[in-house]
């Protein structure tokens, strides 16, 4: 397979999911910088690839994909990595359930705290809303902690899957944002397990929130 072309800056959390998946699946890729500070995503050419004007975009041969979790699923399938994304419908659904939870529940919870404290965006500067956002974020992380305590290992069960790729970069963001955090021992142990993986060290726990 020719290298996958990934359009998106390396600091983007959603681009990093895709890069980590490539590392896990042994897929060659070429990355081009797009996004704030780099090539613009609002041009007609880019919008023809992704009408949302967001990164990442993946070009796989003649095909174009957007939505980071979808790209990760496709890459695992192309590599035949049933360990990352099982073929069995129920086993696959358990992985995708946590991938979807990351996108629809965990990610929105961090918006105010992260944008206010890390991005320093003036639209998210209200201290009360930042505090409320931090509480909401911690509550979602407590859900993950309970799940990891149940499995004793990874999000969907005893084995590493794509769910851990998308959750791993999110956990790193939580740890790197200057908020007051509860002690979540299962999450702490999870991070140490993930840290044994080169892909996590390169694209997850790499000093970028």
Helicity range? 40-55%
Strand content: 5-15%
Give a quick account of the main beta sheet: strands, pairing sense, barrel closure.
4 strands, mixed
Q: Could you spell the SSE succession in H and E letters?
A: EHEHEEHHHHHHH
**Oligomer type:** single chain
Tell me the Rg in angstroms: 17 Å
N-C termini distance: 32 Å
Structure notes:
- By secondary structure, the chain is an alpha+beta fold.
- Helix content is 55%, strand content 8%.
- It contains nine helices and four strands, in the order βαβαββααααααα.
- It has a four-stranded mixed β-sheet, with helices on one face.
- α1 links the parallel β1 and β2.
- α1 runs parallel beside α3 and α4 runs parallel beside α7.
- The longest helix has 25 residues.
């Amino acid at each position: 397979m020719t290298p996958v072309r990934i359009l998106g800056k390396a600091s983007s959390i959603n681009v990093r999911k895709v890069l980590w998946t490539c590392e896990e699946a042994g897929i060659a890729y070429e990355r081009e910088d797009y996004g704030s500070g780099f090539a613009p995503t609002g041009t007609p050419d880019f919008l023809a690839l992704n009408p949302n004007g967001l990164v990442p975009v993946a070009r796989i041969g003649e095909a174009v994909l957007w939505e980071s979790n979808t790209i990760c699923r496709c890459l695992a399938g192309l590599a035949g990595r049933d360990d990352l994304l099982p073929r069995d419908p129920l086993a696959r659904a358990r992985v995708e359930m946590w991938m979807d939870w990351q996108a629809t529940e965990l990610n929105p919870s961090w918006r105010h705290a992260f944008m206010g404290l890390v991005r320093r965006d003036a639209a998210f500067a209200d201290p009360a809303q930042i505090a409320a956002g931090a509480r909401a974020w911690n509550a979602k992380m407590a859900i993950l902690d309970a799940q990891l305590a149940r499995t004793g290992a990874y999000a969907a069960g005893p084995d590493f899957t794509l769910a851990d790729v998308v959750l791993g970069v999110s956990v790193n963001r939580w740890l790197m944002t200057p908020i007051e955090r509860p002690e979540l021992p299962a999450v702490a142990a999870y991070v140490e397990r993930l840290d044994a993986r080169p892909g996590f060290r390169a694209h997850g726990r790499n000093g970028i929130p």
